[in-house]
Hints:
- By secondary structure, the chain is of the alpha/beta class.
- It has helices at 15-25, 40-46, 48-54, 64-71, 82-94, 109-124, 129-136, 141-163, 169-177, 200-211, 231-240, 277-293, 309-323, 339-352, 359-363, 375-386, 391-399, 406-418, 425-440; strands at 6-11, 31-34, 57-58, 189-193, 215-221, 244-246.
- The chain has 19 helices and 6 strands.
- Helix 12 crosses helix 13 and helix 16 runs antiparallel to helix 17 (391-399).
Amino acid sequence: MADGGLRVRGCLPSARGLRACLKLLVKDETVVTSFEEGRMRLLHDLMVREAEQLGLQFESLQTLPLRFLTMMGLPCPPPVRGRPMELMVGEAFRGLTPDNPFRPAAPYPGSQKLLSDALSELRLWDLDADGMRTLADSAPTTTARKLRGLAEFQADLDRRLLEARRSVPTEAARRCMEQDMGHPGPIRHVVVVGGQEEKPVFERWLEWLARQGVRVDVVLESLPDRPDLFRTSQRIARRLGRQIEWTGGDPGWVSSLFQPDSEAEGLHIIRLKAPDALTEAEEALRIAEELTDRQGWLPGQVAIFSRDSARTGPLLRAAGMRLQIDVDAAGSAPLLTNGLARTLLDAIRIAAGEDVRPLERLARSSYCPTPSHLLPILRSRLTEAARTDRPWAALAAWIGERSDLPWLAGLVDWRERVAGESLSAAEWLEEVRELGAAGTAE
């Protein structure tokens, strides 16, 4: 089968540069995806007009290999992500042997998520349980113990996935690379947008895809005269064995941000370097204050550019508060990385259902203190209540006789009070606050 060709394209590091590059590349029914899940919505918004005209498809890179397995008629368990994976990780965590170095962290959901994320990243680099055991044989004692602990955890998680007939997102890509399609499929062109995340397993899958006759374009942030500034892009291109071809058109004034001793027409550019990001943020604000207060510039004429706004934005806002300088900066924070928010959301989801057994998961949270000697008793009572026609009523009757589980009593009372209520968003916000005060978030 003719090789479809894989090319690496360079584009301007901005939404405008990315849209200009994509407009040159996409054709009828092109599939657009990204190494970073968080960019999928941005890509759709950038190309909404072309999506309608050309029938573009937007699909996660984690699920795209599954489509090709389906085309070849090969089975693959669906990938499990999100909450189902977190539950499975929690079960694997609690099943660790007592001598596993990660066993003491088993009761804490935050630790479970960190370890799950670490294993997911290791899979992206093709390091499985056997690979970790091999590395442990030549590693220092402490590192070797941790590697063997990780290997035990991953092996147990893999077994649970197999029993549940589920897989991890990288499994479909690996199964694809063991096959040869032998005929061209309906997907003829795939555009992959890169970022700061590196996923070597999917990079190798893209090479396999090109060998199956699919045209593949990988779009990476770069500049025509300073590609060395974008090290992640350079590493990805090097692993793919390709040179970055500039496809972003005239970079204009943006390239001046990265050039020493240069001026763009109509712009006064000041470049900052400091020992740390907080010092950079404070110095940038002092310069901005100097321009506006003493040199007559308007606030809207001063802008601060950063390669990583997610990291710099909070520092700028914090520095602005300390220096009493107003900062207009958009920002966001992933709510569910906050342990309290995750616990409250979990409590609300459990309260919305009829099954009371997931309450045991809350009991293991540090926000719902439960003495260890009460855990077996609670598990038994939850199982008994789940077998009744009205599980929550049975649980309420039992908890009403106790005073040693205030978080559970508060949750049961809260559920009984708000069940079936039709409330406004503001009223629900107040109810959630009361739920936290009732003991669930103590």
